[in-house]
Automatic annotation (TrEMBL):
Full protein name: Cytochrome P450
Gene3D superfamilies: Cytochrome P450
Keyword Membrane set for record: yes
PANTHER family, per the entry: CYTOCHROME P450 YJIB-RELATED, P450, PUTATIVE (EUROFUNG)-RELATED
Membrane-spanning residues: 187-205
PROSITE patterns for the chain: CYTOCHROME_P450
Record keywords: Heme, Iron, Membrane, Metal-binding, Monooxygenase, Oxidoreductase, Transmembrane, Transmembrane helix
Signal peptide region: none
Top-level taxon of origin: Bacteria
Length: 411
């Protein structure tokens, strides 16, 4: 009883979701929350939120887009809206992205982007992804050591999404710098720092849209500009928001999957040896790494459209809530031995890419990049190893996603 009491008191009353120490091992905290406090109070920068941790509750919330909405204006009173953290007016354009919209607006935007971001367009990238990954690994082979993120996990998906969109290669690092501001903890200080970066990116994109209208090319930007369904097109703000979303989701999450996935395999050498002996397991291995490493820790925000009870906890109309995908994917009520990495896991119904109408549009691309990237990495770097103890690795203090700052390795 005394030990149980100590464990309960060790969990803060309000969970800081961007604390670096929490990011290093959120799974221990989530396990205790699932057991004792499945709907807990948390904070994301200056924002107060609920965090939902059990698999069954997470699935219900992700699938119930009537009761748990994405656009705060569809849930909050004017008084609640006035209490929201300050955001510059220029950021309003970014709220036009489909992740922040409910039906029917979400369906309209998703239909338009489907016209451009087709499965065929993604599949056509397979040979190029292979080529990029091989070139990155070969170019750094002689060095003998480096940072896996800077050398491989970042440039691979960043190059892919930049080329897919049709953004000039010399500008790709700008987008990564800009995206860091978007993913930073939402405090007033970080918002102020982000304003110049966001303004620069919006200006850049609008100029690029104009060029594609006058000089169409065989790229995703042109397809987005030209996308039309039932006489409908993207507005300028919707185009900006959509490219922001595609750029952000198109490389940031895959960076984390590649780097955290590599770390997990290095820490589980028997699983790595199994993958090397049986390369046909790469697809199930990637699914397991998505479940196990939580490259996307929480789904993006939702709001209660009315008073609702979740796991015996009342969530009031208009309250902000986040669902912990990282926690749901370690729930023993759903997964056998959830804290063990098992690349042969069957019936792996993880929620790493979400569920429902907001299921990740880029999931097929992320899966392909991870399958190709990880297989090539361990084929071409058979002696890959960490050069620092795992406990010394630092995790980024970011909202929604979970990723390492650096991954020092030798080969």
């Amino acid at each position: 009883m005394q030990r149980l009491a100590q464990e309960q008191t060790s969990i803060p009353a309000i969970i800081n979701l961007t604390d670096r120490q929490f990011k290093a091992d959120p799974f221990t905290v989530y396990a205790r929350l699932r057991r004792d406090r499945p709907v807990a109070k948390a904070k994301l920068g200056s924002m107060q939120t609920w965090i939902v941790t059990r698999y069954a509750d997470v699935v219900e919330i992700l699938k119930n887009d009537r009761l748990f909405v994405k656009n705060y204006k569809n849930a909050q009173s004017l008084e609640q809206q006035r209490k929201r953290p300050w955001m510059p007016k220029i950021f309003e354009a970014l709220e036009s992205n489909m992740l922040d919209q409910d039906s029917p607006d979400h369906g309209r935007l998703r239909s338009l982007v489907h016209k451009a971001f087709t499965p065929q367009r993604v599949e056509e990238m397979r040979p190029r992804i292979q080529q990029i990954a091989e070139a990155l690994l070969i170019s750094t082979q002689q060095r003998g050591r480096g940072d896996l993120i800077a050398d491989f996990a970042l440039p691979l998906p960043l190059t892919v999404i930049v080329e897919l969109l049709g953004i000039p290669s010399e500008d790709r690092q700008k987008f990564h710098r800009w995206s860091k501001y978007v993913l930073s903890t939402p405090t007033i200080g970080n918002v102020l720092l982000a304003i110049p970066a966001i303004m620069a990116q919006m200006k850049y994109l609008k100029q690029l849209f104009a060029k594609r209208r006058n000089q169409p090319q065989a790229d995703l930007l042109t397809a987005l500009v030209q996308a039309e369904a039932d006489g409908d097109r993207f507005s300028e703000d919707e185009l900006v928001a959509m490219v922001f979303l595609l750029m952000l989701a198109g490389h940031e999450t895959t960076v984390n999957l590649l780097s955290s996935g590599t770390l997990a395999l290095l820490q589980n050498p028997e699983q790595l040896a199994l993958l090397r002996r049986s390369p046909e397991l790469i697809k199930s291995a990637v699914e397991e790494l998505v479940r196990f490493t939580a490259p996307v820790e929480t789904a993006t925000e939702r709001y209660a459209a009315e008073d609702v009870i979740v796991a015996d906890t009342k969530i009031a109309k208009g309250d902000l809530l986040l669902v912990a995908l990282a926690s749901a994917n370690r729930d023993p009520q759903q997964f056998v031995n959830p804290d063990e990495l098992d690349i042969t896991r069957e019936k792996n119904r993880h929620v790493g890419f979400g569920l429902g109408i907001h299921y990740c549009l880029g999931a097929p691309l992320a899966r392909m990049e991870a399958q190709i990237g990880l297989q090539l990495l361990f084929d071409l770097r058979p002696n890959l190893r960490l050069t620092v103890p795992a406990e010394q690795l630092r995790w980024r203090s970011t909202a929604v996603v979970r990723g390492l700052q650096r991954l020092p390795v030798a080969w």
